[in-house]
Structures are given as structure tokens and as C-alpha cells.
User: Which sequence fits this backbone?
């Protein structure tokens, strides 16, 4: 036997292994290069998504706004919020308020107003909205008499359509924000669903308050899937477990935000605003909610 045979065999094996490794490396490199050339959206379904921006409904900080509007907005921006939804302008001139927003790199897609502001004072409401860069003017609540009968609810829906037509003609959108009364059956129907069915999607949008839907016995996820494209705006505040279902900072309750936000774009939700009506410490509350949503992947 040739004494050099084992050495030749070992060298041949090493050469074969090197060639195999080189082929594997080149194949892997080719796949990676091809993947890099594909549109990023192709991988959207297999990547953890995050909210594009976290907004704040300023009703949460109303006690601070009443004392110092500009200082409060600076605090909000410093926490990391990029969008705000107004609930009153606290006697500030819209143009001056817009300058403050611009300086703080904040935008305000929407505002809350009363029903009388869009029916009896539409021109002034629309002018302020345009100055501040709002796209939506949202009625936050309506008198309880509208929730007595299906006829009164249908009357409300027609009034919403009329407001929506004026808003559209003015280059704006009209929206309605729910509480829990919209889930107490009237004449065998759920008021919010009646309003959704009786209003024209081309004229009227809705802002879902996830807490009030939950507290009222509704299912937020089922609702946005049943009425895709109708809920353009969303209020995020959490709830403790039943039976109390008290308001909580986002992330400190039982609402499954991952499931809701995973469906938001498909359902047509464009903006998410943190809100807590009863925050004992508004700054601590909005900070906790922002941190949770900013870091949430779904």
C-alpha cells in the first residue's frame, strides 16, 4: 500500500468540503442579494409592525392646558408624541396655536367639538380647523335624547350626514366619537351600528374609543372588521378586568392592543390617540401610555 494514500484521501476530502462550502456561500449570497432587491412591503406580513406615530387627545391634560397651553404642549412633545387632538383651544388664537405646534414639530389631525359648533357655528369651526391643520372635526358626544328611539337615532344620523356634506364641501372630514351609551340596545338594535348603517361613508367617519366600546359590552376588533374603513381615528385607553372595568393607562389593563393594532391598517384606521379621562397625574399617565405604545410590536 502506498504510504501517501491516506494523505491524498484527506486532501481530496478537504478540497471537496471547501468547494461545497463555497457553493453554499455563493447560493446564500445570491438569495440575500435577490431579497434585498425586492420591495420592502413584501416582508410586511412577517415583520413585527409598530405604530407610525402615537398621538394624544389633549382632554387628558385639560387641567394643565387651562393653566399653560404652550408649556403643556412642550411637555407632550418632549415625551415623544408627534400628533395631538384638541378638545378646545383655551382662548388661543388658532394662528398663534399653529405656530406653537410647528415650533414643537407637532401636527393636529383632528379636534373635538360640540354638536352646536358644527351645526350653528360651522364657518368659524371650519376656519379654525383649517388654520390648525385639522383634517377631521369630531363631535365628542351628543345629548342623551337621541338614544331614546330608533327614530331619534335616524334623525341624528341624518344630521350627521348634513354636517358631513358641509365638511366635505369645505375640504374637511366630519367624525363622531362614541362612549358607552351607543351600546345600550334601543328598539332591538345597537345605536352605534344604526348610526354606521344610516350615515353615508363618503360624508361621515367615526372615531372608536376602545375603552368605551369594551366597557359598554362591545368588541372593538369585531366592530372594525364589520365596518372596515369607517373608523379612521381611534382612542387608546385601557380597562381593568370585569366587573369594574376602570380606566387604566394603555398597557396596564386587559385590552389586547396587539390584535387591534395588527388590524388597524386593513380596517382603515389612520390615527391613534392616547386618552385617559380621569388621569390622577396626567403627565405620568401620558408618559406610561406613550412608552407602552412606542415600544409595542404586533
Assistant:
Amino acid at each position: 500500500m502506498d504510504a501517501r494514500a491516506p494523505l491524498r484521501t484527506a486532501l481530496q476530502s478537504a478540497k471537496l468540503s471547501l468547494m461545497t462550502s463555497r457553493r453554499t456561500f455563493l447560493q446564500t449570497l445570491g438569495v440575500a442579494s435577490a431579497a434585498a432587491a425586492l420591495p420592502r412591503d413584501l416582508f410586511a406580513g412577517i415583520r413585527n409592525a409598530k405604530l407610525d406615530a402615537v398621538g394624544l387627545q389633549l382632554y387628558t391634560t385639560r387641567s394643565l392646558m387651562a393653566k399653560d397651553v404652550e408649556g403643556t404642549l412642550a411637555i407632550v412633545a418632549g415625551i415623544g408624541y408627534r400628533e395631538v387632538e384638541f378638545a378646545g383651544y383655551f382662548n388661543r388664537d388658532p394662528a398663534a396655536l399653529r405656530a406653537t405646534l410647528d415650533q414643537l414639530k407637532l401636527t393636529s389631525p383632528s379636534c373635538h367639538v360640540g354638536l352646536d359648533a358644527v351645526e350653528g357655528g360651522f364657518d368659524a369651526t371650519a376656519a379654525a380647523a383649517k388654520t390648525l391643520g385639522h383634517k377631521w372635526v369630531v363631535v365628542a358626544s351628543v345629548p342623551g335624547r337621541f338614544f331614546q328611539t330608533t327614530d331619534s337615532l335616524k334623525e341624528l344620523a341624518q344630521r350627521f350626514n348634513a354636517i358631513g356634506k358641509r365638511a366635505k364641501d369645505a375640504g374637511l372630514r366630519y367624525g363622531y366619537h362614541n362612549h358607552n351609551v351607543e351600546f345600550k340596545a334601543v328598539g332591538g338594535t345597537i345605536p352605534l351600528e344604526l348610526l354606521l348603517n344610516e350615515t353615508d361613508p363618503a360624508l361621515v367617519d367615526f372615531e372608536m374609543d376602545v375603552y368605551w366600546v369594551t366597557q359598554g359590552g362591545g368588541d372593538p376588533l369585531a366592530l372594525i372588521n364589520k365596518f372596515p374603513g369607517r373608523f379612521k381615528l381611534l382612542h387608546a385607553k385601557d380597562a381593568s378586568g370585569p366587573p369594574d372595568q376602570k380606566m387604566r393607562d394603555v398597557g396596564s389593563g386587559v385590552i389586547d392592543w396587539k390584535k387591534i393594532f395588527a388590524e388597524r391598517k386593513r380596517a382603515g384606521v389612520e390615527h391613534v390617540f392616547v386618552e385617559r379621562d380621569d388621569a390622577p397625574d396626567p403627565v405620568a399617565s401620558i408618559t406610561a401610555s406613550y412608552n407602552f405604545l412606542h415600544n409595542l410590536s404586533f
User: Anything to note?
Assistant: The radius of gyration is 27 Å. The first helix runs from residue 5 to 37. The CA atoms of residues 24 and 64 lie 63 Å apart.
